[in-house]
Amino acid sequence: MGINQPFLGPTLEMHDGESVQMNVRSALSETATVHWHGFHLPARADGGPHQPIEPGGSWTAEFDVRQRGSMFWYHSHAHRRSGPQVYQGLAGMIYVRDQASEALDLPNDYGVDDIPLVIQDRAFASDGSFIYSTRMRNVMMGMMGDTMLVNGVVEPVFEAKTDRLRLRLVNGSNARFYRFGFDDGRSFHQIGSDGGLLEAPVQTDNVVLAPGERAQVIVDVSDGRPVSLVADGLEIMDMGMRGMGGNRGRDMMGSDRMRGSERPMGDWMNGERESRGGMMGGGMMDERRRFTILDIRPAERRSQVITMPRRLATLPRIDPTAAVRTRRFVLEMGMGMRMMRGGGFTINGRSMDMQRIDESVKVGTTEIWQVENASMMAHPFHIHDVQFRIIDRDGRAPAAAEQGLKDTVVVFPGEAVRLLLRFEDYTDPDLPYMYHCHILEHEDAGMMGQFVVTS
Ligand code: C2O
Ligand code: CU
Ligand code: CU
Asked: I need a labelling partner for 89 at 20 to 30 A (CA). Which of 27, 245, 303, 346 fits?
C-alpha cells in the first residue's frame, strides 16, 4: 500500500500561513483514512476514523497551515485498522516551513543537507511480503520486525556533500521505541521536537523516539570519516521490577540509581540502559537490538569549524496557572484473556467507542492533562489538534529536549506526566479529535478516546 507509489507516500512541503486542499482518492480494497499527524486544524479535516474513505471513494481536506516549521507526517487512521495499514505503507512525511526557522543558519536543502528519515521495522516472509500478525504477543507488545526500512529502503547509504547534515527523524514504526546515536559515539545537536524547533540546540549523543515522535538533529561530518546513524530498539516492558527488584536494583546499580530502580523505564532518558541489560535479558526482552539506520559517507575531509545558532525559537512560557482545569487520563492494559477478548486496552477504564465523546473542552481555554500509566509498558500518548508542552514528569521538569512543542509523549509505567494544552480555535460540537496510544496495535485494540472542542 502506498500513496502515489507502491509504498509510503511523497514528502509534502507546506508553508505556514498557506491554505491547502488535499484531494485523496482511494484505489484500495478496504476503508482507509489519511490523518495529518501534529496539525492544528478543524476536526472535519483531521483524517481520523470519522473521515473514512471507502474503496474507490475520495475525500477532500481543506485547512490553513498554522504550524511552526517542523516535520510532521500523515498516515492511515482507519478504525481498528491503523496498525496494518501503516505497516503496509500508508504514511508519508510533511515538511512545514516557516519564515523564522528558514532564516536561521541551518541546513535546509531538501535531500542535499536536509534529510527526512522515516524509521520503520518490518518482518518479511520468505516470498518478500510483509508479515503482519495480531497474535497475542503482537497485540500486547505491538507489531515489530527484524528488518529496518528507512524511507522504505533497506540499508541506505548517503553521500554527504556538506559539512553539516540536518536529519529529520520520524519514528514511523508501529510499536518499537529507539534510541538513536552514531556508531562512533560522536555528539550532535538536537534542534527540534515534534512540532517545531527547540528554543536552543541541545548537545547530546542520543535521542529517544517512541512511535509517532519526531526529532531534528544536526550532525557535523566535516572530519570526512564515514559514520553510521544507529538505533537501539528499547525495552518497553517493565517486568515487575518495581515490585520484586527495588532493593536489589539499588544495590546493583548504586544508590544514585534509586530513581531507576523505582521506575525502571526512566533510565532510557539517563542513558543507563546498558547497566540494566543483564537483569532484563530474556523473555519479552528479546526485542532489544541495534539497527543501522543510515551509512553516511562524507565526500571529503574539510575540517570546517561548525557553528550552531545559539537561539532557535522563542516559545511561550510554560505557565500551569493559566489552566482552567485538570483532566486525568489513566492508561491500562488488561492481560491474558481479557486482552484477547477485546476491551483490555483502556483509557480511564474505557475502550474506544466511535459513538462516545469522552471529553468536551471549551475553545479559547488552557488545560492540564495529567496522563498516568497504570500498566507495565511504556505508552506514547498522542493528542490530535494541539501541540502541547510537558509541565513535568512525576513532578520533575522534563529534559531540555522535551521542553519544546510536542504532540506525542512517552509515559513510563507508574508515571504521571502533566501536559499543558491550549485549545486555540476550531470548534465542532459533533466531530471529535482523538487521543491515543501511538503503539498502533494498542490504538486499534481500544487505547483511544475522543474529545470535542466546543464554543
Ligand atoms: Cu499519528 Cu492519531 O495519530
Ligand atoms: Cu495525530
Ligand atoms: Cu500503548
From this structure: 346
Contacts of 282 (CB under 8 A, 6+ apart): none
Which ligand gives the minimal distance to the CA of 39?
2
Distance between CA atoms of residues 382 and 352, nearest Å = 14
CB 96 within 8 A of CB 68: yes
Q: Write the single-letter amino acid at 42.
A: P
Rg over alpha carbons for the chain, rounded to the nearest Å, is: 21
Beta strands in 341-415 (DSSP E): 345-347, 359-362, 365-373, 379-383, 389-393, 408-411
Residue 393 CA to residue 419 CA, distance in Å, equals: 9
Say if CB 64 and CB 17 are below 8 A apart.
yes
Nearest ligand by distance to the CA of 380? 3
The residue behind cell 501536559 is 419
Cell of 60: 477532500
- Assess contact for 407 and 383: CB atoms under 8 A: yes
Nearest CA to ligand 1 atom 1: 37
Taking a 5 Å cut-off on Cβ, the residues next to ion ligand 3 are 379, 437, 439, 442
348 DSSP assignment = T
Digitized pLDDT (tens) for each residue of the chain, 455 residues in all: 999 999 999 999 999 999 999 999 999 999 999 999 999 999 999 999 999 999 999 999 999 999 999 999 999 999 999 999 999 999 999 999 999 999 999 999 999 999 999 999 999 999 999 999 988 889 999 999 999 999 999 999 999 999 999 999 999 999 999 999 999 999 999 999 999 999 999 999 999 999 999 999 999 999 999 999 999 999 877 654 443 333 322 222 223 323 333 344 444 544 443 333 333 333 344 446 899 999 999 987 776 677 899 999 999 999 999 999 999 999 999 866 666 666 689 999 999 999 999 999 999 999 999 999 999 999 999 999 999 999 999 999 999 999 999 999 999 999 999 999 999 999 999 999 999 999 999 999 999 999 999 99
**Grid cell 544507529 in the structure block, residue:** 230
* Grid cell digits, residue 101: 526557522
| Closest residue by Cα to residue 91 from 170, 145, 15, 148 | 170
Pairwise CA distance, residues 434 & 449, whole Å: 6
